[in-house]
Amino acid sequence: MPARARFGHDAAFWVLLQQVVVRGLVAVKFLAIGRILGPEAIGAVSIALLAVAIAESLSDTGLAQAVVQGRDAPTHDELGAVWATLAMRGVLIGLLLAALAPLMTSQFHMSGSIGLILLAAVLPIMRGVASPAYFIVTRQRGFQTLAGVETSAAFTDCAVGLVCALSGAGAYSVLIGLVAGELLKTTLTWTAMSPRPPIRFSFAGISHYVNFSRWIWAGSVVNLLLNQFDKVVVAKLLGPMQLGAYQMSSKLAQMLLADAAIAMSQYLFPTFSEHLRRDVAGARKLFRRYLLLAGVGLTVLVIVLRIAAEPLFNFVLGPAWLSAVPLFRIFVINMAIGAVIAVLVSWLRAAGMPKVATHASIIQAIVLCVTVPVAMHLWGVTGIAWAMTAGLGSAAAWMLYRSVKEA
Question: Where exactly are the transmembrane stretches of this chain (predicted)?
Answer without folding.
Answer: 12-35, 41-58, 79-101, 113-137, 158-180, 290-308, 328-348, 360-378, 384-401
